């Protein structure tokens, strides 16, 4: 089973987030993306719900 | 151009059979003066008495407009899903408090202060120098009346971006709306409100009687820019691009209708009070306001029913009615009754077309603020030229030359179009800049978890997210690059006691994984849920 996402939510500040498209997400430098994920600032979304990438 | 009624215009106007009778007026005035003098009052005191009537009228009008804040709170909170009712209503309280402070500090001065090249005012900051006798009503009364307009412009935005916008982001935007965005365009269009001076638009003869552009277009443009930059609520549009119904359905139809009626009530002060003079002219304005709203309501209903397949018919009747109110706002002092009727009919139809257009463009305007305030406002401004009656305008503006009287409809139309374009430009660019700064430094939205559970004042639910730091670099890179990965190591922990909203969220979360019913239940129990909570979740999720 594979999972996918169509939007990405990124935490900007305490209580402040932005939702961007996959295209916008992929414009961000790859290392920065990984860093954001490691910091727990990224949530992947699919069809308006939280996407789970594996269990 | 705000209005050109001066304190000296306060006079007794006697109307017999619908027509003013100057002879009777003079006689009545003399008799009244004699009586009052006989009672020991001077003519100055008499003037003050009439002036007091105007003050009373304008202060009552302020209170009527303030009640619109309650109308917006009811309309907006009734239009959003139950999980967001409380916070949306709350935003209508918060924006009033913030705008009250921002407008006092700087906004009023920018709007009505001594002009700098016609672009912005630079006196009356902190209301220094504001006194009595500056216009038909004194400075303090005028400030409160104008504050009500500024508050309305800000609160329009709260509905459009409801359901996903963060509280702090909205605070910041409201402050800048009251301190900068609203007052600057207000200066261009109404900068001669206290001081006799020409500003960018007033010097051209631009007419926006009570704020179709100054208040409503400003709120509408800011709403549109916000709705685009913030993005739709999660799940508002399906993968096929079609809107999903539940988010747009009102939680409380009764609250929506009551809110609309409260707005309508407040609008009598919004437009009627803008004469600044108590008298029958205010009566004419209120008559036109009521007629246009009624016509718009009927037109929106018939149009939605017969030409749009009854889609969202309730929303369109409500929105169409308010669009009628918005459209008549710029011109209610200078149109004949038939003009008001036509403005209302067109406004209702324009609303419905704009409503569908936004859905087609996948712009999520949670309460339909953009069709009402932006499109209704634009139409109202243009209607000044299209439906303005030069005779009635001359009666109001007296010796002030306005393009409609001196050059005809096309001369006025030209100026009105310039005003519309300047509003779109200024509010569009400035609100884009403000939203962009908020997006970069604060973030415009709440977390997805909070959005799904319902935005709260406290800051949402605490659901632990996937622990990305435990994944390998290869897996992280794979996800970051947008590639699907094999289901494997990630562990999701849910550590929150079940409450109603969380149950709903967890249910949708589980369903999204395509898990079987029993598997869902088993997983929830493994995560520490009680069997009762699991059954409740199962019931709520419909599986």
Overview of this structure, please?
The complex is a heterodimer of chains A (55) and B (543). Chain A is an alpha+beta fold and 55 residues long. In chain A, 27% of the residues lie in helices and 36% in strands. Chain A has a four-stranded antiparallel β-sheet. In chain A, strand 3 and strand 4 form a beta hairpin. The longest helix of chain A is centred in the middle third of the chain and has 9 residues, at 30-38. The model of chain A has no long low-confidence stretch (mean pLDDT 82). Chain B is mostly helical and 543 residues long. In chain B, the strands form two sheets. In chain B, strands 1-2 form a two-stranded antiparallel ribbon. Mean pLDDT of chain B is 83; it is low at 3-47, 486-502 and 511-515. Chain B folds into two domains: 57-449, Ammonium transporter AmtB like domains (Ammonium transporter fold), CATH 1.10.3430.10; 462-541, no CATH class. Classes of the chains: A alpha+beta (55), B mainly alpha (543). Chains A and B meet through strand 1, strand 2, helix 1, helix 2 and strand 3 of A and helix 5, helix 15, helix 16, helix 17 and helix 18 of B.
């Amino acid at each position: 089973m594979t999972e996918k996402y169509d939007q990405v939510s990124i935490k900007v500040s305490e209580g402040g987030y932005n939702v961007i498209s996959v295209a916008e997400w992929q414009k961000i430098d790859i290392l920065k993306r990984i860093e954001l994920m490691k910091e727990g600032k990224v949530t992947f979304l699919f069809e308006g719900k939280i996407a789970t990438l594996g269990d | 151009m705000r209005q050109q009624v001066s304190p000296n215009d306060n006079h007794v106007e006697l109307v017999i059979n619908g027509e003013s009778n100057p002879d009777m007026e003079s006689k009545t005035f003399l008799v009244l003066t004699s009586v009052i003098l006989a009672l020991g009052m001077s003519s100055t005191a008499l003037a003050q008495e009439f002036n007091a009537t105007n003050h009373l009228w304008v202060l009552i009008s302020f209170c009527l407009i303030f009640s619109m804040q309650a109308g917006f709170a009811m309309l907006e909170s009734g239009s959003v899903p139950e999980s967001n009712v409380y916070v949306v209503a709350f935003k209508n309280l918060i924006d009033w408090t913030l705008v009250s402070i921002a407008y006092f500090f700087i906004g009023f001065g920018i709007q009505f202060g001594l002009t700098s090249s016609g672009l912005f005012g630079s006196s009356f900051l902190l209301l220094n120098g504001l006194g009595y006798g500056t216009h038909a009503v004194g400075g303090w009364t005028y400030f409160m009346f104008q504050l009500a307009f500024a508050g309305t412009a800000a609160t329009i935005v709260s509905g459009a971006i409801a359901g996903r916008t963060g509280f702090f982001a909205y605070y910041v935007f409201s402050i800048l709306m009251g301190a900068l965005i609203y007052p600057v365009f207000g200066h261009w269009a109404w900068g001669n409100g206290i001081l006799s001076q020409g500003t960018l638009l007033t010097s051209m003869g631009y007419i926006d009687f009570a704020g179709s552009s100054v208040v409503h277009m400003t709120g509408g443009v800011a709403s549109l820019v916000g709705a685009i930059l913030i993005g739709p609520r999660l799940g508002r549009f399906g993968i096929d691009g079609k809107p999903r119904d539940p988010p747009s359905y009102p939680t409380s139809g009764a609250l929506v209708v009551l809110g609309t009626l409260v707005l309508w009530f407040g609008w009598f002060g919004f437009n009627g009070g803008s004469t600044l003079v108590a008298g029958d002219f205010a009566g004419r304005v209120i008559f036109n306001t009521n007629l246009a709203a009624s016509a718009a309501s009927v037109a929106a209903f018939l149009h939605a029913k017969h030409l749009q397949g009854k889609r969202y018919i309730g929303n369109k009747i409500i929105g169409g009615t308010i669009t009628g109110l918005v459209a008549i706002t710029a011109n209610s002092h200078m149109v004949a009754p038939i003009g008001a009727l036509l403005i209302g009919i067109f406004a209702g139809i324009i609303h419905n077309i704009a409503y569908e257009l936004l859905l087609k463009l996948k712009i999520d305007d949670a309460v339909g603020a953009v069709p009402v305030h932006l499109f209704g406002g634009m139409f109202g401004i243009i209607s000044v030229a299209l439906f303005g009656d030069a005779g009635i305008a001359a009666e109001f503006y007296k010796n002030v030359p306005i393009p409609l009287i001196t050059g005809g409809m096309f001369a006025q139309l030209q100026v009105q179009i310039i005003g519309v374009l300047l509003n779109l430009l200024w509010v569009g660019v400035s609100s884009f800049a403000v939203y962009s700064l908020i997006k970069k430094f604060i973030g415009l939205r709440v977390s997805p978890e909070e959005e799904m559970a319902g935005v709260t004042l406290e800051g949402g639910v605490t659901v632990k997210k996937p622990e990305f730091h435990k994944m390998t670099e290869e897996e992280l890179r794979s996800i970051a690059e947008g590639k699907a990965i094999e289901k494997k190591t990630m562990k999701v922990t849910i550590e929150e006691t079940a409450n109603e909203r969380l149950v709903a969220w967890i249910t949708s979360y589980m369903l999204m994984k395509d898990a079987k019913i029993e598997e869902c239940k088993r997983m929830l129990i493994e995560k520490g849920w009680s069997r009762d909570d699991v059954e409740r979740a199962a019931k709520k999720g419909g599986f």
